[in-house]
Amino acid sequence: MEQVRKKVLVGMSGGIDSSAVCLMLQERGYEVIGVTMRVWDLPRQFSADGQEYPDFIEEARNLARRLGIVHYVADEREAFRNIVVRDFVDEYLAGRTPNPCVMCNPVFKFRVLTEWADRLGCDYIATGHYVSVEEENGRYYLHCGADEQKDQSYFLWRLGPEVLSRCIFPLGGLRKGYVRSYLEQNGFEMKARGGESMEVCFIDKDYRDFLREQVPDIDTRVGPGKFVDSSGRAVGAHCGFPFFTVGQRKGLGIALGKPAYVLRLNARKNTVVLGDADQLFTRHMLVSGGRMADEAAFADSRLSVRIRYRSRPIPCSMRVVDNLFPQEAEGDRLWLISFEEEASAVTPGQSAVFYVGDKMVGGAFICSQRGLHAYLEKQDGNISDTIRTERTGA
């Protein structure tokens, strides 16, 4: 009796990585079906006059024809605008610096892939992400990709076990150089030489120009504000807080006779706090909206955290604390993170992603650091045993 092949839906971007995934899974005996999401059209994606679909969709279609696999196009432009782009704009208008991929993956990209997989009767979902997923005692965990320069676990911390249990990430144990060689050796020389994809797929140039396109009245809605120093003294004027981010040094539009860095943003007052580079360093931060993939790991002495994509993991510890300033962050509880070494430019809106070794054990959003000193003053008090208490119910 002929064995029925497992069906896998591959998210095809038309690029190097997803193309390699299709070929690898075919070689492993899977029945591969491809779907390419059309989410945001950019002018440079259309190389010919009158072209109906962007170049990357045409490339995905051509690859599918060459491999003999069924291919679909999912037109998700309206949903993408309403979910991902709206959140991106709203975060900047709230004085935070978002990472749109962290938002997109759980509530958009993998949701759409799951829906299409169910519709087409596919057992699995596969993408070209440089991560791996492993099962441990019936639970699924993401692990960092073997290529440290390409590891994408940071972007995927919000994926739940119901999605991870269906995911295949063939590139997790590979390096990008090998993937290029693999395509070339299999007759895809031109694809192997292709360039890297953009980090933010819907922004062509500068995010500030994009904000002005999406919010035409942003300059009047927000208006000019003040640069202030760490003591609150006004030192100049700026065009509006959404156009700045923590840690920024270039493009400030102000000369103070020495290098100045953005320390904080205050959306309510439309102020941008400037200071010296050493004022960006801290041993602590507050995060909210946390998700634990492995609760026990947060008491592990090997716990570390990344505070931005491609940043080096910093050894840390975590305590759960009551939210003393509800207007600054959502939720009744926050996580107080203590670094074993100084971290620089803790940026509200970015993600804090936690690891034990190469296993991703959870994540959270960096929230406002206002009032951080109040939490630190309580460290010797009633929160010292919070992790133990919450785990044991004591």
- Helix share bin: 25-40%
Strands side by side in the biggest sheet: 12-15-14-13-16-17
The gross shape turns out to be globular
Largest sheet, in brief, is: 6 strands, antiparallel, barrel
The SSE string, one letter per element, is: EHEHEHHEEEHEHHHHEEEEEEEEEEHH
Strands, count: 17
The chain-level mean pLDDT equals 92
Written overview of the protein:
The chain has 11 helices and 17 strands. It has 394 residues and is an alpha/beta fold. Strands 12-15-14-13-16-17 form a 6-stranded antiparallel beta barrel. It has a 5-stranded parallel sheet with strand order 3-2-1-4-7, with helices on both faces. The C terminus is likely disordered.
Element layout with pairings:
Layout: E1 7-11, H1 16-27, E2 31-38, H2 55-67, E3 70-75, H3 77-93, H4 100-120, E4 124-126, E5 131-136, E6 139-144, H5 161-164, E7 167-168, H6 176-185, H7 189-192, H8 207-214, H9 218-221, E8 225-228, E9 234-238, E10 261-266, E11 271-275, E12 281-292, E13 303-306, E14 314-322, E15 333-344, E16 351-356, E17 359-366, H10 372-377, H11 386-392
Parallel strand pairs: 1-2, 1-4, 2-3, 4-7, 8-11
Antiparallel strand pairs: 5-6, 8-9, 10-11, 12-15, 12-17, 13-14, 13-16, 14-15, 16-17
Helix pairs in contact: 1-6, 3-4
